[in-house]
UniProtKB/TrEMBL annotation:
This is RNA polymerase sigma-70 factor, ECF subfamily. GO terms for biological process: alpha-amino acid metabolic process. Belongs to the class-I pyridoxal-phosphate-dependent aminotransferase family. Its cofactor is pyridoxal 5'-phosphate. Residues 72-403 form the Aminotransferase class I/classII large domain. PANTHER family: AMINOTRANSFERASE, KYNURENINE_ALPHA-AMINOADIPATE AMINOTRANSFERASE, MITOCHONDRIAL. Homodimer. Keywords: Aminotransferase, Pyridoxal phosphate, Transferase. GO terms for molecular function: pyridoxal phosphate binding; transaminase activity.
Length: 419
């Protein structure tokens, strides 16, 4: 095996395992984390991680924002702040969400350390061991890891090229409740979903909301990519249609800079106090410095134009990936054609195990994320997620070509006819 092979196994010394809490058994590294050490090597074309591409973000401008903040308001920026988040930033977040049809009160917003922390806090508030969380099939690996740590039982709901299928949601709810199990919420990413890139149409959003209201199930709408549509805007957020049953998660990681780690949750008023208390017990308060950096940026810079620049950058990269897939992948493969966001989802012939194939891909100097990482039930072994957000178009073409060659060789080895 080459020294470029991926190693997935990690763990604590055996003599410490008996000292851990029972829930620690669910704290396992994700497939993506396991890939980082290899995929970050300069000779590897990484189509794995979903790192935003900051080449379109003017660094001199950001340096000016930070410099002005410290000079004019450093005493506040470098001090503890509110556990709910800075009031001015919460007002500005309302303006950002208005672009997707949401009318919100700043008092219903809780600022978090990225939207991932918001997801963790919601899970802490709602999930008892054995409770069911409904998710898309496939779903975001970071969410699956969080639900696993809180000992939830994850039930996947079937998707097609237009996202979650309402009838499959009805069937899942009926099946889970017939077994006497308790459903705590539905988690989904309606816009340019991670990992598939698909976008849920407006009519399905309305139907899914109606199903969940009738079933008295909260909807957790995770929306980091909603403003990153390439050809047309995404439909209005689900929260725009239902303010009482939707918990909305947002983030500046994809539209400004992921390193600032500023996200938020917009929650029904009845949940806000619990969320603030959970946040304060976790981190006391979100970073005043990064919050006020974001706030200054939103106040003084053409942030809508900056988002448009990101969209153009990602669109060029998406096009390079789709063109390369058409040119270099076998005809038996199928893939999504995202209208925004970061990802393409590829399905291969069922006999191809993409996790087992990974070491051969690494030898060919290309990395991706195997599809099973996005399922809680072991499915997805024939799929892979490819990310086009970070590499240059030239590197994307190079990586897809190499990966296509690896897949064709594996199909020939297995005696699969290649069209």
């Amino acid at each position: 095996m080459s020294d470029l092979s991926v190693r997935y196994q990690t763990g604590a010394p055996q003599h410490l395992e008996t000292r851990f809490a029972a829930r620690a058994a669910g704290m396992l590294p994700s497939e993506i984390r396991s890939l980082f050490a290899v995929a970050s090597r300069p000779e590897i074309v990484s189509l794995a991680g979903g790192m935003p591409n900051l080449s379109a973000l003017p660094m001199e401008m950001m340096a000016g924002v930070v410099n002005e903040l410290i000079l004019t308001n450093g005493a506040e920026a470098l001090q503890y702040g509110s556990g709910q988040g800075h009031p001015k930033l919460r007002e500005q977040i309302c303006d950002v969400m208005a672009l997707e049809g949401i009318r919100a009160n700043a008092d219903d917003i809780v600022v978090t350390t990225g939207s991932q922390q918001a997801l963790d806090l919601i899970s802490r508030i709602f999930i008892d061991p054995g409770d069911v969380v409904l998710v898309e099939a496939p779903s975001y690996v970071g969410a699956l890891g969080t639900f696993r740590q809180y000992e939830a039982s994850v039930v996947h709901v079937e998707m097609d090229q237009d996202g979650m299928i309402p009838e499959s949601l009805r069937a899942a709810i009926k099946s889970v409740r017939a077994a006497g199990r308790k459903i705590k919420f539905l988690y989904l990413i309606p816009n340019y979903q991670n990992p598939t890139g698909v976008c849920l149409p407006a009519d399905r959003r309305t139907e899914i909301l109606a199903i969940c209201r009738e079933a008295e199930i909260f909807v957790v709408e995770d929306n980091p990519y909603g403003l990153l549509g390439f050809d047309k805007p995404s439909p209005n957020a689900m929260r725009a249609e239902d303010s009482e049953n939707v918990i909305y998660l947002g983030s500046f990681s994809k539209t400004i800079a992921s390193g600032l780690r500023v996200g938020w949750a917009l929650v029904p008023q009845s949940l806000k106090d619990k969320l603030v208390i959970a946040s304060e017990s976790s981190i006391l308060c979100p970073s005043n410095f990064t919050q006020l950096t974001i706030s200054s940026y939103l106040a003084d810079q053409p942030w809508r134009d900056q988002i448009a620049s990101f969209c153009e950058l990602y669109k060029v990269r998406r096009d390079a990936m789709l063109e390369s897939l058409e040119q270099h992948f076998p005809a038996e493969a199928t893939w999504t054609k995202p209208g925004g966001g970061f990802y393409v989802w590829v399905n291969l012939p069922a006999e191809i195990d993409t996790k087992a194939l990974m070491p051969k891909a690494i030898v060919a100097k290309v990395a991706y994320v195997p599809g099973n990482a996005f399922y809680a039930d072991g499915l997805g072994s024939w799929s892979m997620r490819l990310s086009y957000c970070h590499p240059t178009p030239e590197r994307i073409r190079e990586g897809v070509k190499a990966l296509g060659g690896v897949i064709k060789q594996e199909m020939q080895r297995r005696g699969t006819a290649i069209k």
